[in-house]
Amino acid sequence: MHGKQWKKLGVFAFLDTGAPSPHRKDYVTLVIVHGRGLKAGFPSSADFFARLLPLAGKLGARVVAINRRDYPGSAPFSEEDRALLLSTIPDTPAASENTDRFMKARAGELYDFLTQLVKSEELPTNSIVLTGWSLGTSFVLSFFAHAPSFDSESWGLSQYIRRVIAYDPPSIAMGYPLPDGYYTPLNDPSIPPGEGVKIFPLWVTGYYAHGDTLETLSLRDALDEPSPTMLRMSPEDLTSAVHEPPTSLDGPDTVVLDSGLDRGAFTRLREVALFAPQNAEIAWPNVEFRYVWCDRSVWVMPWGAWLFSAEIEQARKDGKLIRKHSVVRMRGANHCAHWDEPERLLRLLLSDAPSDIGA
Question: Per its UniProt record, what InterPro entries does this chain match (predicted)?
Fold first, then answer.
């Protein structure tokens, strides 16, 4: 696939830079999960992280970029998987439970992959930084919510997980509702039918000058400079990073996004990952959750970050037990920082004290 070094482990194909040095045993491994593509050609597969790979050795780290199920090289969903997912579309009593079942199965696959990676590559303890970009955040949240229940007396993956990162998720991937009257090119009545989907990728990869309130978000018009990331990608780059089938009307990414929000699954995953149940302790208490947001991304990204911070503040007032966490604002970056500013982003994801890098 596209001349890169692809490997296969379990159900996933993945790009792997390998250990930074055969003699070094204390390195950090960034495992990153891609987002959702669009039929108009928005890049989404692990190939979109290609610019991170050459920097791994320089920073003394390892990068593993996974292609999710139904993406090139990874296992397609089974007929049973598809039937379960499609059953979440109709508004039935079973739809919410089936959405939860589908996402828990994805968490189990990621748990098994990381377990096999640790054992086959002899990864050091406290060395994995698991990151989900955009819609990929939902799959990483599911992992975080369910992984403690997969541990056994003889095996605990938590000792290998350094942190879990939500990298510039849209608000809906975290389970937060969209505001009333929200804007996208897909619901813009001034755009002719069928044209909105063509504009959407440029809208998502643009740079925006936002204020600090909902009223001062720049909803529609990107800055002229920097230009949208997609306009600066070569045809070859786009061809390698775009994979459209999961984004069809009943494709898995489309259904996961809609059902995850409509059935409340993403909200439940977020709450389990972040907060302790009543009269209980936080599972995997030493694993940090980091929320990284890019302040020149399209408006649904800063909107989600604000809702996250407000939720944490309210939880403190309510006396909830909250997971160790941090919020990092990547100033001047858009939704494709891994392409436009790969070294700065990689340093931020790997750093235990990332505030200066985000500034």
Answer: AB_hydrolase_1, AB_hydrolase_fold
Beta partners for residue 15, in sequence order: 6, 65
What string of DSSP letters covers 227-263? PPGGGGS-HHHHHHH---GGGSTTSHHHHHHHHHHHT
The set of residues, in sequence order, having a beta carbon less than 8 Å from that of 81 and lying 6+ positions away, is: 69, 102, 105
Report pLDDT digits (tens) over 48-57.
999 999 999 9
Task: Identify the structural domains of the chain with CATH numbers, from first to last.
Answer: 6-358 (3.40.50.1820)
pLDDT in tens, 15-74: 999 999 877 788 999 999 999 876 556 778 999 999 999 999 999 999 999 999 999 999
| Exposure string over 67-106, b if 16+ CB within 10 A, otherwise e | bbbbbeebbebeeebbebbebbbeeeeebbebbbebbbbb
> In this structure, how many other beta carbons lie within 10 angstroms of the beta carbon of residue 311?
18
pLDDT of residue 274: 97
Provide the pLDDT for residue 94.
95
Q: In what order do the strands lie in the sheet with 325-330?
A: 6-9, 12-16, 61-67, 28-33, 128-133, 161-167, 288-294, 325-330
What pLDDT score does 148 carry? 96
Contacts of 179 (CB under 8 A, 6+ apart): 214, 303
In the numeric block, the tokens 């090289």 are attached to 73
Instruction: Report the alpha-carbon distance of residue 68 to residue 36 in Å, rounded.
Output: 10
Contacts of 282 (CB under 8 A, 6+ apart): 275, 276, 321, 322, 323
Sign for the pseudo-dihedral over CA of 115, 245, 4, 138? negative
